[in-house]
Design a protein that fits this description.
The protein is about 40% helix and about 15% strand. It has about 800 residues and is of the alpha+beta class. The protein is elongated and about 110 Å long.
């Protein structure tokens, strides 16, 4: 009997150490196969500058992608198959595979016939030669990549990645050319090749391969480790940890989607959800972090004619209120769709988990708001926007969209007369990134950071409108900038922060410093619940005529309501004033004043599809124009995001289904890259912070609530001067964590939209909605029938007028008794 730990084969004792040889095969080689497969199909962090991970094909290129399938197939079908069928790994199979046979080339016991390499998995050795042919092709690609890693934007150079990839390809080359199959192939049937029938060169080559073959196992394991290390290095630096000696400005990564959403607020997330529901591949780009969009600052509620509180409410009344608030300059079709579909969108949000305030019988509670005939705003205390973003975010993540956070898009790329993608950079490390897409939805919000006193967050620099304008899309109604009547005015550090209209909706009263309830003079019927443009002008007038508060505002008082009621209905406002201004709003009035809040203008879109004038480009939310006309009603913004975010996502997905993949223009990408890097090359140029401050001063003083031709012409002249100064912007430091560099790009957008606002305001010689001209104080019936359109003509901004579309008779009947003279 053989002792424990030994096997007996035909009477010959043999050490049974099979488990030692199976461990590296199963753990290392098996783990390598799983890891390689996962990385190859993952599609992220595979390239850093000229360094390409060995688990990806050089066919992954920023400009072209000729391979019709996943480039991972090159790795899985070629090199991985070559390694799995390798003879020296196979030796471990003989010792390990079910212990049958227990040794190489040894007959089996019990008289069974030895089947050797006709049995799985040993039969794979027969395919080894063909995998070797594929591996030679792939080796050529890797040599190309290794050589390319020594050539940077500025010429020949050596980086850490260059050395890593060179060592890797050298080891892989030795592993391949020391292969027994190659040695046997060269030797032919005479494996020993001791004869010299075919001459000296062939014999010498065979002898060299034979010498290398003696170390084939060493090359096998060393190359296995080097491939994993090379991939680890490339992934490490491409994920934002480049190290001090690694170049950070050479190339860029590329991502491809059917639908690309720029902006992750309410409109962007709702568009993404709908596009996903249509089966599209969706990418969402956000300038900040997911869940931090400015939508969270929308506090009052979502306007929808659900009639939960006022049963007389319906979509027709909501439509009439919206058109009346917009002074009938609205796109009537958008106003109709919005009024008809907003209730369904709210119910949809509820089904996805939104927790609304409730009536006593369990229905969604609705509150009053300025300009709305009935109590119409569905709300979650005064945190409705936050709940909406939370719900949409959870839904989108569950459905599976790709999110690119802290990424700024600087240019829309085109393929002829249609969009083809977008170019941008990562704000954290300054790396460039290219997105390829059949459809793009712009949902980037507003333009408030062009004014110093604004309720808008730092992201609102007009990016989406400027991107669309530069790409050739039309802008519309840019003169209509809404100043919310109630923003904080004291202390200076919080000036402009929004005080929700829900305060007035819950019974807040406006008074001047004399204690007068001054809205009786400006709108005695609706009082504090008048439209925002009227209330903002009323506060501005009271301050200008000397009846304002100590810090240049008005008092907003809710202290006559029970303290517990105020804390329950307005929790955010209670804490906001208590922590930022040391004011208890249950006992003291708030000091408020107008703050730049919303732009009714934006990208001109079709009512049904949200399609812009540029093929493949869609827009929704504040970035789009048409729904609100000359002035937006409170609460219509959030329902706008839901209704037209969904429609934009649906139309974008449908467009992607019938559109072929676009081609990216390398020259356009290089030009976008060069434009972003230019401020680093200038010395002693303009400071971007000084330029931004000067722009804000111009817009606040000359393009504010009240306007005159003299002020607007002066503003246009100053904006032209600022544009010239912007061509000399200069910054120092690196591209990593550089807010000055970010501002350089934001200034281009803000200058574009500021010029559009000013030119449109000069042209509209009347007062309508949020556009108030002191020199033209009345409505003009001619201007009540046309919109201002802004287009790019070469390097010049072109302004023209376009008639509003005719409203159908059935809808005109709803508006007939409400439409005022001259409107």
């Amino acid at each position: 009997m053989a002792s424990f730990g030994q096997a007996h084969v035909e009477g010959a004792p043999q050490g049974n150490a099979w488990w030692i040889q199976i461990v590296p095969v199963i753990v290392v080689l098996g783990g390598f196969g799983v890891y390689a497969t996962f990385r190859a199909f993952e599609g992220a962090y595979f390239q850093w500058g000229p360094y390409l991970s060995p688990f990806y094909s050089p066919l992954i290129d920023v400009h072209h992608h000729y391979w019709p399938f996943s480039p991972a197939l090159l790795i899985l079908a070629g090199p991985l198959g070559f390694r799995v069928t390798c003879y020296y790994y196979r030796k471990a199979y003989y010792r390990a595979f079910f212990l049958d046979p227990p040794g190489c080339a040894v007959a089996e016991k019990s008289g069974r016939r030895y089947r050797g390499e006709t049995k799985f998995p040993f039969i794979l050795q027969n395919a080894h030669r063909y995998f070797m042919y594929l591996a030679v092709v792939f080796l050529a690609f890797l040599w190309y990549d290794a050589v390319r890693s020594f050539f940077f934007e500025n010429g020949f150079g050596v980086g850490i990645g260059s050395i890593v990839l060179l060592v890797n390809i050298i080891l892989l080359t030795f592993y391949l050319f020391s292969c027994h199959s190659l040695r046997h192939l060269l030797g032919g049937k005479l494996d020993c090749f001791s004869c010299v029938n075919f001459g000296g060169p062939r014999h010498s080559t065979w002898r060299a391969l034979s010498a290398m073959n003696e170390h084939h196992m060493l090359f096998a394991w060393m190359s296995l480790i080097s491939v994993g290390f090379a991939d680890f290095y490339v992934r490490l630096v491409s994920s934002g940890n480049p190290g001090p000696k690694t170049p950070v400005n050479e190339k860029y990564e590329i991502h491809e989607h059917d639908v690309l959403i720029i902006g992750a607020g309410g409109a962007g997330l709702r568009a993404a959800i709908e596009a996903l529901a249509q089966g599209s591949s969706v990418g969402v780009i956000c300038k900040s972090l997911l869940g931090k969009a400015h939508t969270v600052m929308a506090e009052g509620g979502i306007a929808a004619s659900m009639a939960n509180v006022d049963q007389a409410d319906n979509w027709q009344v909501h439509f009439r209120d919206t058109m009346r608030g917009g002074k009938f300059l609205n796109n009537w079709r958008m106003a109709q769709i919005h009024a008809q579909e907003s209730s369904d969108r709210v119910r949809e949000l509820e089904q996805w988990g939104a927790l609304f305030d409730r009536t006593e019988d369990g229905r969604i509670l609705q509150r009053a708001f300025g300009g709305h005939t009935f109590k119409r705003l569905c709300h979650v205390g005064d945190r409705t926007g936050l709940e909406m973003i939370r719900t949409l975010q959870d839904r989108g993540v569950q459905m599976g969209f790709d999110v690119y956070m802290e990424c700024t898009v600087t240019r829309l790329l085109k393929d002829g007369d249609r969009v083809a993608g977008a170019f941008g950079y990562w704000r954290e490390n300054g790396r460039f990134v290219v997105f390829k897409a059949k459809s793009i939805v712009v949902a980037t919000g507003g333009i408030g950071k062009a004014w110093p006193i604004t309720s808008n967050s730092w992201e609102y620099t007009g990016d989406g409108m400027a991107l669309a304008y530069d790409a050739g899309a039309d802008l519309m109604d840019m003169e209509f900038v809404q100043f919310h009547p109630t923003g904080m005015v004291w202390p200076p550090g919080v000036q402009g922060i929004l005080v929700t209209e829900a305060v007035r909706g819950e019974g807040g009263i406006l008074r001047n410093r004399l204690g007068e309830r001054f809205m009786e003079k400006y709108d005695p019927k609706r009082m504090e619940l008048s439209t925002r443009d009227v209330v903002a002008r009323a506060i501005y007038t009271e301050v200008r005529e000397g009846r304002g508060t100590e810090h240049g505002g008005a008092f907003l008082d809710i202290s006559h309501k029970p303290a517990e009621y105020v804390k329950r209905k307005l929790p955010s406002m209670y804490h906001q004033f208590l922590e930022l201004a040391d004011v208890d709003i249950t006992k003291q009035p708030m000091e408020v004043g107008p703050t730049c809040h919303y732009v009714m203008g934006g990208v001109k879109v079709e009512g049904d599809t949200a399609q812009s004038s540029l093929a493949g480009l869609f827009a929704a939310g504040e970035a789009a124009a048409g729904l609100h006309g000359a002035n937006r009603l409170g609460g219509n913004s959030l329902s706008d995001l839901l209704v037209f975010g969904r429609r934009a996502g649906l139309a974008a997905a449908q467009h992607a289904k019938i559109t072929s993949a676009p081609t990216l223009d390398a020259r356009e990408i290089e030009d976008a890259e060069r434009e972003l890097l230019t401020p680093f090359e200038r010395k002693d140029g303009e400071n971007p912070y000084n330029l931004h401050s000067d722009l804000q001063e111009v817009m606040q003083a000359l393009v504010g609530i009240f306007r005159t031709d003299e002020d607007l012409q002066s503003a246009l002249t100053k904006i032209e001067e600022l544009k010239q100064r912007s061509e000399r912007l200069s910054i120092t430091g690196s591209r990593m964590f550089n807010p000055g560099w970010h501002l350089c790009r934001d200034l281009k957008s803000m200058l574009t939209v500021s010029e559009a606002v000013t030119r449109s305001a000069i042209a509209r010689r009347e007062s309508r909605g949020a556009h108030s001209r002191i020199d033209y104080p009345n409505l003009d019936p001619v201007w009540g029938k046309q919109n201002n359109l802004i287009s790019r003509r070469a390097e010049r901004m072109d302004l023209r007028q376009e008639p509003i579309s005719t409203i159908p008779e059935d809808l005109q009947a709803l508006l007939a008794e409400e439409k005022g003279t001259g409107a």
